[in-house]
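Sequence, please.
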């Protein structure tokens, strides 16, 4: 039975794993000072920091003008995976809000939820034990590749990374 459980375990669906990634993103983007606009962007950033291949791929697609067919397939996979994670991220964010680690604010202007990081004692322990360090470094690199990522609109971020807006893909 233990072997069966191990085989069925998917790391990307582990709430602890997702919590660590979210807190790393918020810490690297200095969301304790200014809020992160639109929690749905977390899914995109998460996909690029969860493994080194996706991280290198982000660097490639931001620097190369013309992508090949295989790159487009990877883009679609990352885009779809990021959309699938949004509901899980919302649940984790509500949990973190109850734990007083984040503050969620409704942004009526953009019809989104903004996130502010609260540096509680339990968060400070994670930082001191360097649990977040590797992911924070990746997020800082992403911040350098995509300036103003914290405040960009979701559509603008998608267009920068994936090369099209939400509306464009349905028009063709």
């Amino acid at each position: 039975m233990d072997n069966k459980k191990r085989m069925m375990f998917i790391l990307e669906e582990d709430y602890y794993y997702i919590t660590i990634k979210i807190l790393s993103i918020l810490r690297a983007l200095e969301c304790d000072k200014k809020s992160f606009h639109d929690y749905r962007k977390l899914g995109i950033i998460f996909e690029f920091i969860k493994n080194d291949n996706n991280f290198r791929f982000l660097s490639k697609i931001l620097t190369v003008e013309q992508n090949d067919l295989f790159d487009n397939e990877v883009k679609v996979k990352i885009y779809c995976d990021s959309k699938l994670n949004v509901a899980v991220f919302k649940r984790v964010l509500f949990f973190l809000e109850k734990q007083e680690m984040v503050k969620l604010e409704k942004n009526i202007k953009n019809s989104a939820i903004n996130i502010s990081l609260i540096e509680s004692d339990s968060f400070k322990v994670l930082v001191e034990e360097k649990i977040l360090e590797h992911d924070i470094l990746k997020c800082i690199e992403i911040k350098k590749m995509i300036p103003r990522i914290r405040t960009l609109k979701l559509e603008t971020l998608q267009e920068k990374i994936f090369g099209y807006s939400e509306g464009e893909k349905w028009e063709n």
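Residues 9-158 form one domain.
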